[in-house]
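> call design_seq(struct)
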């Protein structure tokens, strides 16, 4: 606590009485004696600033004059100038702050109080904790005041509170360095696990063999951006992967759909899994063989560890809260988001939408690292790609990512879903790996079956005779779970009415 009296020059008029919280009659968290000790240590040890520079900022100090002294020390250190009583006094005079801190006498007093900088790191951590406590008090007081205001929308207040708390946490979250040995051991563990895995996958498999060969699966802590022009099928590609991951491989995953409702999303999954046209699922006009396929193949989706969320206008702060719970309670190993530009960062103020998208992108990468799981986010492309001429001109490029170059910078991998109109690639889709921070880039060809909104491995599809209803019958669906092959259709016992023994 700051003393109320002091005989040193300028001391009496510059001492601050402790601020008392009027709501709870508490003194604001502070450690002014330690502040003066740290400032004194910085002026007698040329290496001391390097110890505390990542922990302390001018705002970390409670006394305003201590903030000014530390700012002078910081300025000198950043320009690699000596830090001592005389240089700090001169820098304060240059900043116009010398008289406000109490003159040269106060600077001299600071250095004379300390004989050693041995405990400076410990003292600095206490100052940083007191500063964080004050910030939390200020935050909660402001939110409390707004909560009493009946003109404030509570939902908006929740968003703002979550955003401000997230920003506060980000500013104060520091991760220390580590010696390399434990990191090497972790890396060797990953290599050994990959060696024991026959297909060489170290991450979450996609179900697409050639894509997995290049990526070794979606890797933990990676942010993967999947982008494409309108109607190229990026959502279909994401849902096809979701079906492969959750239904085929039984790997828990979450799908956040900001564009479609849960029912719309599941309808597309049913179309994908049961090979029934989406329009027929919508109007219910299924042929007998289609009812039979629905009956048999729906069991493949039932019980799958796939968790869907269709919250509109999802914020990065809501996502973080939900993602943590999904990982903790359901062991989710991968998250998909459809799509990035529909998210927002409520509670934070931005000068432009581009700046907001940059924060969203950076937050998604931070969340992937925090949870140590891959996050796949779909993204739109700029409209400029549509004006380019020729087939090759329509091929997406990294510069086409919409609204922010930060998306490209933050992403560990960027994939484009591209379906050229050329005759040679009819019914095919290119998955263009345009950026791969950990490996090679290149193109992967997949079969696209638009009627079922499904992407397949080209080698997995073997066509049989057409059914009377116009749908493909007798197709063999390859399962990578147990290596066997199961017929997709059998002769239906129904005569056209919907069966009553469906497994739901």
């Amino acid at each position: 606590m700051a003393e109320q009296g002091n005989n040193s020059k300028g001391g009496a008029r510059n001492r601050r009485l402790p601020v008392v919280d009027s709501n709870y009659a508490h003194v604001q968290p502070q450690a002014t004696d330690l502040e003066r000790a740290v400032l004194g240590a910085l002026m007698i040890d040329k290496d001391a600033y390097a110890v505390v520079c990542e922990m302390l900022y001018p705002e970390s100090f409670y006394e305003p004059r201590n903030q000014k002294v530390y700012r002078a020390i910081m300025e000198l250190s950043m320009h690699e100038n000596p830090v001592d009583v005389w240089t700090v006094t001169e820098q304060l005079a240059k900043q116009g702050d010398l008289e406000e801190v109490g003159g040269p006498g106060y600077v001299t007093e600071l250095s004379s109080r300390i004989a050693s900088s041995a405990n400076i790191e410990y003292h600095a951590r206490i100052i940083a904790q007191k500063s964080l406590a004050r910030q939390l008090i200020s935050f909660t007081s402001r939110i409390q005041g707004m909560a009493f205001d009946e003109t404030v929308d509570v939902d908006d207040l929740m968003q703002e509170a979550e955003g401000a708390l997230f920003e506060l946490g980000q500013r104060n979250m520091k991760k220390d360095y580590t010696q390399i040995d434990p990191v090497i051991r972790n890396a060797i563990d990953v290599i050994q696990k990959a060696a024991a895995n026959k297909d060489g996958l170290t991450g979450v498999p996609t179900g697409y063999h050639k894509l997995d060969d290049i990526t070794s699966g979606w890797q933990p802590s990676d942010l993967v951006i999947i982008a494409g022009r309108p109607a190229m099928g990026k959502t279909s590609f994401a849902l096809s992967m979701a079906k492969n991951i959750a239904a085929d491989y039984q790997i828990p995953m979450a799908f956040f759909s900001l564009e479609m409702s849960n029912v719309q999303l599941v309808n597309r999954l049913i179309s994908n899994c049961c090979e029934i046209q989406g329009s027929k699922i919508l109007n219910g006009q299924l042929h007998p063989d289609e009812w039979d396929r629905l009956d048999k193949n729906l069991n493949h989706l039932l019980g799958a560890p796939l968790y869907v969320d269709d919250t509109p206008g999802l914020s990065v702060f809501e996502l973080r809260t939900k993602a943590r719970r999904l990982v903790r309670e359901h062991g989710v190993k991968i998250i998909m988001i459809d799509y990035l530009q529909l998210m927002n960062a409520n509670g934070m103020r931005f000068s432009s939408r581009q700046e907001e998208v940059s924060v969203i992108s950076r937050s998604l990468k931070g969340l992937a690292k925090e949870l140590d799981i891959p996050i796949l986010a779909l993204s739109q492309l700029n409209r400029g790609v549509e004006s380019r001429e020729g087939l090759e001109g329509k091929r997406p490029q990294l510069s086409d990512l919409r609204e922010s170059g930060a998306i490209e910078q933050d992403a560990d991998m960027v994939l484009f879903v591209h379906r050229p109109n050329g005759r040679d690639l009819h019914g095919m889709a290119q998955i263009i790996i345009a950026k791969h921070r950990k490996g090679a880039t290149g193109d992967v060809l997949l079969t696209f079956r638009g009627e079922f909104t499904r992407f397949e491995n080209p080698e997995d599809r073997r066509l049989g005779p057409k059914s009377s209803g116009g749908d493909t019958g007798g197709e063999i669906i390859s399962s990578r779970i147990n290596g066997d092959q199961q017929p997709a259709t059998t002769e239906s016992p129904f005569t056209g009415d919907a069966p009553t023994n469906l497994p739901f």
